[in-house]
Amino acid sequence: QIPRTTAPVVAAVHKYATQVVPDSTLLFGMDANTYENPKADQQGVTAFAEFYSGLDLNSCYGPTPNPKNYTTFHARTYLQPQLNKAIRYAEKDEKGDRNPKDFIVFHSKEYKVLQTTKDNTGDQKYTEGMVFPTLRFPSDHGITWTKLLRTGN
């Protein structure tokens, strides 16, 4: 079984921010490695949101992110390493990795989300249903950015 490391990492960063450097601002961009429909050995996005909300944290997608708000959609081809993970193009929707994995996390009392945007093209737009990386966009995670309003300390 693969250990779920996202929650312990967030807990450690939160503890450090609140106990060691309490006058600092926590703004943490991360690959949370969360899944819309998690298997037993995977971290679900809904459970992750409940976890960070319990620490008085929020994310760029709010306290209850949409599990269908994908930031990854990749499928290995037979031309890539790890042939055991390769799938046919016709199987991309059912076997590809399309999940909401990328977050920006912060203390709820410090910021309000004004706008969050994704990009999987390199042109500041996100094309739903498009498998990536591509020749123009070489990452298997989309870019997530957010505009925040500072509301307190």
From TrEMBL:
Top-rank taxon: Eukaryota
Name of the protein described by the UniProt record: Endonuclease/exonuclease/phosphatase domain-containing protein
Lineage: Eukaryota, Sar, Stramenopiles, Ochrophyta, Dictyochophyceae
